[in-house]
Amino acid sequence: xxxxxxxxxxxxxxxxxxxxxxxxxxxxxxxxxxxxxxxxxxxxxxxxxxxxxxxxxxxxxxxxxxxxxxxxxxxxxxxxxxxxxxxxxxxxxxxxxxxxxxxxxxxxxxxxxxxxxxxxxxxxxxxxxxxxxxxxxxxxxxxxxxxxxxxxxxxxxxxxxxxxxxxxxxxxxxxxxxxxxxxxxxxxxxxxxxxxxxxxxxxxxxxxxxxxxxxxxxxxxxxxxxxxxxxxxxxxxxxxxxxxxxxxxxxxxxxxxxxxxxxx
Length: 264
Description:
The chain is α/β, with parallel strands linked by helices and about 260 residues long. It has seven helices and seven strands, in the order E-H-E-H-E-H-E-H-E-H-E-H-H-E.
């Protein structure tokens, strides 16, 4: 009889979580570690990172913080190769980092070309280059690994602008271009490296509750089939599934975790 629960376990697996100190990244890191993985968080805040590492280790979770600036990829190959040698080989790579410029929320008519280019570099180009490099490391080490990039509902469907009215919120134009690009590049990687047993999927969250204004929450929730926004732990659970052998025949997917937003 197959032990199905064991398929979700991640013992003896090494997981890199890029952006592991963020709203989603923290829960993803905890979830992967609870499933048995050794988790290396890549992020830019030493104070937060070391504090979170200590907190997790007190709970007997194998989580290590390493400083890594996704905005500066001048030596990313050397860093990933070093981590692969020191901590690895890498079995799981999750990129949930969300770097952006200070004028990220400008309306589309106010976008400056240098800002657009910078955000494409920060999010789209970095995500593609990092995933490609990790996939190559997995191939070189004969690791049948799992790469999980993060897209969005708005990489799949158009924004619903009326939910942002009267809420001091807006939706950045570059986000749609970036997330759409990440989704399709993930499919490319899945096709290119699938013959080596490497799975590449793109997890696409819907709106996640995070102290937004009540008007926005109410407007958003009316458009989901479950009548609510998502929670960080729900994204973390889906990430563990895609990382595990329970998803061993899943690759190249746009994995929607959105309460049904994109179904209607």
